[in-house]
């Protein structure tokens, strides 16, 4: 029934306009009504976005739900939207997570609550825009636009060092974006089009490809974030309010991974192949180096932030290992590349659930104790048994236990990277031990043992609102872990098309044409 | 039939979910009723399936329950493979589990005492415990019933999860929450190898289904792969060793054994169920299931055999010096797992599974008996404070005697048949290294007898060394405890004699286990096997019997007849004693190398990598560089008009010069 609605525009603009309405009501002082409105908008947006799934045709790699109108005709810039099997699941992840963060901030945020809620709604619309945009300029506008609400969120509702963290966050991400902008404009002059799909077909020689690849790399590697441009993330997380951390970890990091899939691989396949060793090394360093760093963190949020970086290492590993999988002469069956890319996307979605859950857990503790120091806790299970049950579940998901979503992506990427090289799989699989080590050690120190002090003794278990949020996440994590087929099936056509595109060198075609 | 297969694990799962989520509402009786009902149904249905497979001649079932995922042409499925190997495991798992469920009612009756008064987590601990053991039963069933590597890994890790939850069940004890983390992490080291093995299987066979992979085994054996430098490895060898590393974690083989003794921090029923009878045998089961692969690699078999022999001998030795009653049984379990592993290495898979089964009964019995003693002793586990319990606890005493005799392989009891078969199979094996393994398993017989009866005499005979208060309260445990003891004592006594003929020397396993032509050492043993009784008679004449008898007599002399000799021996052999006491320093080495090592590495990477290099030098360094440059450039902006005028004149002159000259 939704099939002829402009679903993508609705999912983008409903939360943005809704955010304006929330601001207006909030100004009148009706905080309760404002919250209900914000929740309603986020839920309606989520339900609308489900139409993208039900109406999705998974047999084709073409863009679907396409909307295209001229926006700035002088520069051939279009308001051009559409989704495929890569972006559609990420959009639903975005709308899903927004519902949870609105619920999570419900009565916890007392300072300027309307602005807080509105910021999330704005951000939701802009992030959906990033995933849906098929015009490079439109993409760029959404890409930069979404930084603003996040900047404000950390700057206004953040912790003590929020100014340092916001500036670091902004400059880091902005420097990357500027290079991307240059690359986009260059390609516009080469192909007279800002359409991303046209850019996929654009002929580029190796020098151009390498430069464009590096420009994209600076933008996306910072976003993911990949080692060694990751240090903004722990700072941003530590200072951000809980909801901000959740959105940052669950969605914003995915935009980096999405960028690699949407821009780097198809536009610069030869440069991607030539430089894949660099990206693979950075990913594996992220998995191992960052895991060790996570192990020794004293602040829970920093620990989970580092854990995020390590888990995102699987995303970039999965994306860039495909060239070596396809080139490996020992890979007799010739499979593995699809598995790697699909694993990377599943890992993104799963990490959205799990990192969101981990940050929400820390939020629950922080709201009560106003500290995130692991040493300040101990024996929480004795005062908050229900909460501790959730915590152990999410910790196990974070450690990639089979049956939870955390397992699926890691399993796929490890198996796929074996198809390229035994040692890639070997190094990636260390996460089984390291991921469990830093997660469970934190669980042990925070939740187990005797009640550490009177502050812990005074803790109250989850209220019903928190219980509902956690339960929703448990269902999501289990559903994806026990039956990933519905999510993976929508990707097949898109991924196969992408691989076909990627495996055709743009250079050889040039030679043939001459 | 398929519905029955599905009903078996699900009935355990439903019990676990109900008791876990609604434990507070249904109360203690509700929780243990629903879980016992669930596991009871699973047990009855398992027996029915066993009957169908073994006596009614049902075909092997291999079917899919649902497709988990389809990606890259590889089917990831959840499905069942029901053959004679599976049904035997199902019967053992559900049977022991049922006994443990009933026993737990008695063992956990005073559970509230184990928690701080105001702990909310302690309120429903009883219900939670039942939920966990049912969840374990479900996971273990999924593991043994699997028809593919994915589900195998699922079950593999799920039993690890429940083991983690149960070892750390008393979350208030620092030792328990240390032990459970250690158990999980060490198991993860094994799983690390396991997942790489699975990855290799997927890459070269394109499938996760056992039968598909087995069908391609011969092709895989022709492939050689380069892993390190220029060394060429046979692919099957690589796969088998990687998979076996998983088994080393789960079945606690040296050097991944360190978690099992510490796992005794958990409540005793789970030591019996998980850390003796079922979960730790998952590795043995897995290797037997993979026999079509392992048979193709002599290198892997040899590796398996040596690891097993080392475990069987050296872990048994540690058992001699333990004073904690549960730890003795734990080291005994390690040693017996070593025996099973040696059997695998000798291609005597059926003997390994046979020992797995008899061991499940008598070791569960020994653990539950130890638990019964611990209840009577008010949770005192130190054997030096026991003694003379025979007259207070007759049922526990006699059942323990059956368990101990079965463990040491006294002719006629279950353990005798399985252990003697293994020893003979190793003797006739052709696997490289079997001579050493044979010595190890023979020496192990003496050691087993010695530590078993050392424990038996220290606990049940001799001087009563407990304090007065404990002594006054000594009494036999309630029927929910003794009932399972008797129920387990019966198979511990008889099941070996009844089943050896078909299981080991007959064709019980049919095509479930494959043994290559050149590895049929067990068949040679079988040629001299005519009946169980003949085997017993033969047993009295063998080396093993005299070694066992010597072990019992030595224990009797040192701990009953002349206790001073034990202290004397300790002083004479103080260095070896210390080495055993410290468990070969394995724990200390792990703590220093892996524990402190990774913390230091983490701190180093963080402090020097992230904080100093990236943030300090690059990020904040760039910011400082900009600030520094601007502080210099700022000097030019003096605000003095004549400075600017001077600069303009110089500039104009410079430009003019350039214009004229070039």
Q: Which terms would index this structure?
A:
heterodimer; A: 514 residues; mainly alpha; two-stranded antiparallel sheet; 25 helices; 2 strands; 74% helix; disordered C terminus; B: 662 residues; globular
Task: Describe what this molecule looks like in 3D.
The complex is a heterodimer of chains A (514) and B (662). With 514 residues, chain A is mostly helical. Helix content of chain A is 74%, strand content 3%. Chain A is built from 25 helices and two strands. In chain A, strands 1-2 form a two-stranded antiparallel ribbon. In chain A, strand 1 and strand 2 form a beta hairpin. Chain A is globular, with a radius of gyration of 22 Å. The C terminus of chain A is likely disordered. By secondary structure, chain B is mainly alpha-helical. In chain B, 73% of the residues lie in helices and 4% in strands. Chain B is built from 28 helices and four strands. In chain B, the strands form two sheets. Chain B has a two-stranded antiparallel ribbon with strand order 1-2. A two-stranded antiparallel sheet of chain B has the order 3-4. The radius of gyration of chain B is 31 Å and the shape is globular. Classes of the chains: A mainly alpha (514), B mainly alpha (662). At the A-B interface, helix 13, helix 16, helix 17, helix 18 and helix 19 of A face strand 1, helix 5, helix 6 and helix 27 of B.
């Amino acid at each position: 029934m939704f099939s002829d609605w402009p679903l993508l525009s609705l999912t983008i603009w409903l939360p943005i306009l809704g955010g304006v309405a929330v601001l207006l009501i909030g100004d009148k002082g009706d905080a309760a009504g404002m919250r209900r409105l914000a929740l309603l908008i986020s839920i309606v947006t989520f339900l609308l976005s489900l139409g993208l799934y039900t109406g999705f045709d998974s047999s084709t790699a073409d863009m679907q739900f396409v909307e295209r109108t001229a926006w700035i005709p002088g520069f051939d810039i279009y308001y051009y939207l559409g989704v495929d099997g890569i972006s559609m699941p990420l959009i639903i992840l975005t709308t899903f997570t927004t519902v949870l963060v609105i619920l999570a901030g419900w009565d916890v945020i007392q300072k300027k609550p309307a602005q807080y809620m509105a910021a999330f709604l704005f951000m939701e619309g802009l992030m959906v825009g990033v995933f849906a945009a098929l015009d490079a300029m439109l993409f760029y506008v959404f890409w930069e636009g979404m930084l603003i609400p996040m900047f404000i969120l950390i700057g206004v509702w953040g912790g003590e060092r929020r100014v340092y963290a916001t500036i670091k966050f902004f400059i880091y991400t902005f420097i990357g974006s500027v290079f991307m902008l240059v690359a986009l404009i260059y390609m516009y002059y080469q192909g007279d089009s800002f359409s991303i799909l046209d850019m996929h077909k654009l002929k580029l020689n190796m020098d151009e490809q390498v430069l464009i690849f590096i420009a994209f790399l600076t933008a996306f590697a910072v976003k993911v974030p990949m080692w060694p441009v990751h240090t903004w993330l722990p700072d941003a997380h530590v200072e951000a309010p809980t909801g901000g951390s959740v959105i940052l970890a669950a969605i914003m990091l995915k935009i980096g991974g999405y960028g690699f899939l949407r821009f780097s691989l198809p536009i610069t396949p030869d440069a991607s192949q030539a430089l894949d060793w660099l990206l693979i090394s950075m990913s594996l360093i992220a998995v191992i180096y960052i895991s060790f760093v996570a192990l020794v963190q004293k602040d829970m949020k920093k620990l989970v932030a580092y854990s995020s970086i390590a888990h995102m290492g699987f995303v970039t590993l999965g994306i860039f290992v495909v060239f070596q999988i396809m080139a490996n002469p020992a890979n007799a069956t010739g499979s593995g590349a699809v598995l790697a890319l699909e694993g990377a996307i599943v890992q993104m979605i799963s990490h959205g659930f799990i990192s969101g859950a981990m940050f929400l857990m820390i939020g629950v503790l922080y709201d009560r104790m106003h500290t995130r120091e692991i040493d300040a806790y101990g024996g929480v299970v004795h005062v908050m048994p229900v909460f501790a049950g959730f915590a152990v579940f999410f910790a196990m998901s974070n450690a990639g236990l089979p049956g939870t979503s955390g397992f699926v992506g890691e399993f796929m990427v490890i198996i796929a990277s074996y198809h390229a090289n035994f040692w890639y799989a070997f190094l990636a699989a260390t996460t089984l031990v390291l991921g469990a080590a830093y997660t469970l050690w934190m669980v042990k120190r925070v939740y187990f043992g005797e009640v550490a002090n009177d502050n812990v003794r005074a803790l109250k278990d989850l209220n019903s609102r928190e219980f509902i949020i956690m339960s929703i996440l448990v269902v999501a994590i289990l559903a994806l872990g026990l039956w990933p087929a519905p999510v993976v099936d929508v990707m097949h056509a898109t991924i196969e098309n992408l691989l076909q595109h990627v495996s055709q060198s743009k250079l050889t075609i040039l030679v043939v044409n001459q | 039939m398929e519905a029955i297969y599905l009903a078996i694990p699900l009935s355990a799962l439903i019990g676990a979910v109900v008791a876990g989520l609604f434990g507070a509402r249904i109360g203690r009786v509700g929780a243990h009723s629903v879980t016992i009902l669930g596991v009871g149904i699973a047990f009855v249905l398992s027996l029915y399936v066993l009957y169908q497979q073994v006596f009614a001649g049902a075909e092997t079932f291999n079917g899919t329950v649902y497709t988990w995922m389809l990606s890259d042409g590889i089917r990831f499925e959840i499905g069942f493979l029901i053959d004679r190997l599976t049904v035997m495991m199902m019967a053992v798992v559900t049977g022991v589990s049922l006994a443990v469920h009933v026993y737990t009612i008695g063992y956990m009756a005073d559970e509230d005492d184990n928690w701080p008064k105001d702990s909310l987590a302690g309120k429903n601990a009883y219900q939670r415990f039942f939920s966990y053991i049912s969840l374990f039963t479900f996971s273990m069933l999924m593991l043994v019933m699997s028809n593919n590597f994915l589900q195998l890994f699922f079950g593999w890790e799920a039993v690890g999860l429940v083991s983690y939850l149960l070892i750390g069940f008393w979350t208030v004890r620092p030792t328990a929450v240390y032990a459970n983390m250690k158990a999980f992490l060490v198991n993860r080291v094994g799983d690390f190898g396991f997942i790489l093995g699975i990855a290799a299987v997927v890459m070269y066979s394109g499938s996760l289904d056992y039968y598909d992979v087995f069908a391609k085994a011969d092709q895989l054996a022709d492939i050689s792969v380069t892993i390190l430098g220029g060394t060429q490895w046979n692919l099957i060898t690589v796969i088998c060793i990687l998979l076996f590393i998983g088994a080393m974690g789960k079945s606690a083989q040296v050097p991944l054994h360190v978690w099992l003794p510490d796992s005794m921090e958990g409540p005793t029923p789970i030591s019996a169920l998980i850390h003796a009878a079922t979960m730790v045998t998952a590795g043995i089961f897995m290797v037997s299931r993979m026999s079509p692969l392992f048979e193709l690699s002599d290198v892997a078999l040899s590796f398996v055999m040596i690891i097993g022999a080392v475990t069987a001998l050296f872990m048994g030795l540690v058992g001699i010096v333990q004073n904690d009653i549960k730890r003795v049984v734990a080291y005994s379990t390690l040693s017996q797992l070593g025996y099973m592993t040696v059997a695998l290495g000798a291609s005597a898979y059926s003997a390994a599974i046979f020992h797995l089964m008899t061991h499940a009964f008598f070791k569960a019995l020994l653990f539950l008996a130890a638990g019964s003693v611990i209840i009577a002793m008010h949770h005192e586990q130190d054997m030096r404070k026991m003694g003379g319990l025979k007259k207070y606890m007759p049922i526990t005493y006699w059942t323990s005697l059956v368990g101990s005799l079965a463990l040491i392989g006294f002719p006629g009891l279950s353990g005798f048949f399985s252990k003697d078969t293994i020893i003979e199979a190793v003797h006739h094996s052709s696997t490289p290294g079997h001579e050493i393994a044979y010595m190890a398993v023979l020496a192990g017989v003496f050691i087993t007898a010695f530590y078993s009866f050392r424990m038996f005499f220290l606990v049940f005979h001799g001087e009563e060394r407990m304090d007065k208060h404990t002594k006054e309260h000594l009494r036999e445990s309630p029927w929910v405890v003794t009932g399972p003891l008797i129920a387990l004592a019966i198979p511990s006594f008889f099941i070996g004699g009844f089943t050896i003929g078909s299981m080991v020397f007959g064709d019980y396993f049919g095509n479930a286990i494959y043994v290559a032509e050149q590895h049929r050492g067990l068949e040679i043993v079988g040629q001299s096997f005519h009946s169980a009784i003949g085997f017993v008679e033969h047993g009295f004449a063998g080396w093993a019997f005299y070694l066992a008898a010597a072990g019992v007599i030595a224990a009797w002399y040192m701990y009953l007849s002349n206790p001073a000799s034990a202290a004397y021996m300790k002083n004479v052999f103080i260095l070896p004693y210390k080495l055993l006491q410290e468990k070969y320093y394995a724990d200390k080495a792990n703590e220093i190398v892996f524990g402190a090592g990774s913390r230091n590495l983490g701190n180093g990477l963080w402090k020097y990598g992230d904080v100093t290099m990236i943030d300090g030098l690059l990020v904040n360094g760039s910011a400082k560089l900009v600030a520094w440059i601007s502080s210099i450039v700022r000097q030019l902006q003096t605000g003095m008009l004549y400075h600017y005028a001077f600069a303009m004149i110089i500039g104009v002159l410079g430009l003019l010069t350039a214009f004229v000259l070039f």
